[in-house]
Design goal:
Blueprint: H1 2-21, H2 32-50, H3 57-68, H4 73-80, H5 84-95, H6 100-122, H7 127-136, H8 138-145, H9 148-162, H10 169-182, H11 187-199, H12 204-223, H13 226-235, H14 240-247, H15 260-266, H16 268-272, H17 278-301, H18 308-315, H19 318-328, H20 330-334, H21 336-357
Length: about 350
């Protein structure tokens, strides 16, 4: 694992040095060599993810994967009871005798593919900084290493967001349905995508209202005013004792309530927003609205166990905001070599924490 990680960091550094030192009219700027370097980086990351030690939910997924070949497809999906698209994919790979590590490699590669479509949409001059920002974020680690069903769902969710403003409603709805079939917790995000698609492009007023809603949800999260109200409402439909046990987090051990680290990480897009060009905001304003509203839902419900899954769904677009900020920054354009070196230096501790210390 450590050898692979060191190889990855060395590969990133060599790739950046190579691209930056190339003659603009030389062979390495014809696209072939750059595509080779970026492709090599992606494959290395997927290999590291697939070779990690099984911890947390990944152990459960491994057991389900190895046991799936003992059942027929109908029985296996019926046994799971939900998220049929994931269990079909898992059963299919296992039925073909494909090792679990290859299955993890495929999931990571699929997630990277959806992010690469956003890279094309923003027409970044260099893919390497974008990829470094992706692999350095905690949300990518979580999706690629633990929450496999959510990872595949996010793959389709990111593509649906890409076509949100492109007037392709059938494609967007189809992608949202597939995402829900992979992980049912994506339903709120998918409903929000469909709502934003029907509403049209986001105006400055909508962006402002979304920011206000986000701040109100954070304040409600800090004060905890919604918890007794929701317990009273839900208690009318279920046994009150069970409701209290669930909301008191007695059996899950999940981190709930207002969490400072979650708040700081959630604040990143708002801190970057004033520095993003007006052209990008006009074209992809709904992406920012999607993030704000879905993240607001998390803060409103963060006293409920497993509400962090909603936070993960909103956080999946943070690497995109970070890449847009970096690539459109006048400082980056002027000092791109120094900025790339700084990105590598920042990526090393983040990558070490995500893939070494937690493996």
């Amino acid at each position: 694992m450590i050898l692979l990680s060191v190889t990855l960091l060395f590969f990133i550094f060599v790739s950046m040095v190579y691209i930056k030192s190339c003659d603009p009219n030389g062979v390495c700027h014809n696209g072939q060599m750059i595509n080779f370097l970026v492709g090599g980086l992606i494959l290395l990351v997927c290999l590291i993810v697939a070779s990690r030690e099984l911890i947390s939910d990944s152990e459960m997924y491994f057991r389900l994967y190895t046991q799936s070949r003992m059942f027929s497809l109908v029985d296996y999906i019926g046994f799971s009871g939900h998220d049929p698209a994931y269990f079909f994919t898992s059963w299919f790979f296992s039925f073909l005798g494909i090792p679990y590590e290859v299955f993890l490699f495929f999931i990571c590669l699929a997630l990277f593919s959806s992010y690469s479509l956003w890279f094309r949409a923003f027409e970044f001059k260099s893919a390497l900084p974008f990829l470094i920002l992706i692999i350095s974020t905690p949300v990518f680690f979580s999706l690629s290493a633990h929450t496999l069903r959510q990872s595949l769902a996010v793959t389709f969710l990111l593509v649906a967001l890409l076509y949100l403003d492109n007037k392709k409603p059938i494609l967007v709805i189809f992608l949202c349905v597939i995402a829900i079939l992979f992980h049912r917790m994506t339903a709120p995000a998918c409903l929000l995508i469909v709502f934003l698609m029907l509403r049209g492009k986001a105006s400055n007023k909508v962006l402002l209202y979304s920011v206000v809603i986000w701040f109100i949800s954070v304040l409600l999260s800090i004060t905890g005013l919604l918890k007794p109200i929701l317990i009273a409402l839900v208690g009318g439909f279920f046994q009150e004792e069970r409701v209290y046990i669930y909301f008191d987090n007695s059996f899950t051990g999940e981190r709930v309530g207002f969490l400072l680290d979650f708040f700081i990480y959630s604040s990143i897009p708002l801190l970057l927003f004033p520095f993003i060009s007006k052209e990008v905001i006009d074209k992809h304003g709904n992406l920012f609205v999607f993030y704000l509203l879905l993240n607001s839902l998390y803060f409103l419900l963060n006293f409920i166990p497993f509400s962090s899954r909603i936070a993960n769904l909103s956080w999946c677009v943070i690497p995109i905001f970070m890449a847009v900020f970096v690539s459109s920054s006048p400082i980056y354009k002027r000092y791109s070599k120094l900025a790339d070196l700084l990105l590598i230096c920042l990526a090393i501790p983040a990558f070490k924490y995500n893939y070494w210390l937690l493996s």
